[in-house]
Amino acid sequence: EILENYGRSPFIPSETNNFSESTAGGHTV
Domain segments of the chain: what residues? Predict the structure, then answer.
């Protein structure tokens, strides 16, 4: 699920906008 990816990557709840791109592997922070 999405929550699993959150624990793996230094994601922020406020970055839900870029979350969609993160799933594709183009996660840029």
Answer: 1-29
Q: What is the pTM of this model?
A: 0.14
Torsion region of 12: left, alpha or beta (phi above 0 gives left; psi -120 to 50 gives alpha): beta
Q: How far apart, in whole angstroms, are the C-alpha atoms of residue 20 and residue 28?
A: 11
Any residues with CB less than 8 A from the CB of 12 and at least 6 apart, and which?
none
pLDDT tens column, 1-29: 566 665 666 656 665 666 555 555 555 55
